Amino acid sequence: MTTDILGAHMEAELTSQPDTWRQAAALAESAPLPQQGQRVVMLGCGTSWFMAQSYAAMREQAGQGVTDAFAASEAPLERDYDLAILLSRSGTTSEVIAAAHTLKGRVPLLGIVADPQTPIPGAVDDLVVLDFADEASVVQTRFATTALTLLRAGLGLDVVPSIADAEAALAAPIDERLVAADQITFLGSGWAVGLAHEAALKNREASQSWTESYPSMEYRHGPIAVAAPGRATWVLGAAPEGLSDDVSATGAAYVEHADVDPLAELVATQRVALERARARGLDPDHPRALTRSVILG
Description:
Elements: H1 8-15, H2 17-27, E1 40-44, H3 47-61, E2 67-71, E3 83-88, H4 94-103, E4 109-113, H5 119-123, E5 126-129, H6 142-154, H7 160-171, H8 176-180, E6 183-188, H9 192-207, E7 211-215, E8 231-236, H10 243-248, E9 253-256, H11 262-279
Parallel strand pairs: 1-2, 1-3, 3-4, 4-5, 6-7, 6-8, 8-9
Helix pairs in contact: 1-11, 2-6, 2-7, 3-6, 3-9, 7-11, 9-11
């Protein structure tokens, strides 16, 4: 496989996000999404867990009700909720299926999947199918962000600026410092914390990179010690006062686009992940040791 087609699926999928986000926003008008005041828990694994974290913070910030997010394998399923959201691109994730069986009949279940012909749709009470956002690449990009856009629109939030920012992020030149950096730390605040975790995961998966991620205010409580020349600190959303000066003093590259929607900034991090993979001769469509879904025997 030649370098120019490494990650061909990932590239096509991540560049389609403005279109899939528009479809998700339209679908949100009729989808069986959480109602204001409901106590909600959202479960997922890997990327889906990070999207759950972002949604939980976003929903509570919007005053819509108590919202928890857990890795499906670690969720305290004995708690009382009005609704559980199960997010899984494949619809086959073992831990999510196990959680569904535990909750079935006690808590109403909403599944969000890409493939309706899978086990999770048969285990839930309501279903949203995002088949238009399904992916051939093992590395997730558009399914996760499309699901979050659906949920965001379901809160009554305007996603049009996010779509416009994503289109701009796709057209912007890539910062070569980020492609060459030997380490990147991603930071975020509020609902962008989950996005920072996802950005770090994407770069680990796609390019086997050393990445870390933290809430922005936590960075100076130790993690900044790894910042150095040839490394980078990338903030999704607005940064705390003084952080740029502290990072610059280490010699690390500092990246912040405070006026860009954090979800659109995640798209920019996906592009960097793809280019870092290509620069290393790696195929992010088939990453080392990873498969489309974790199915436990």
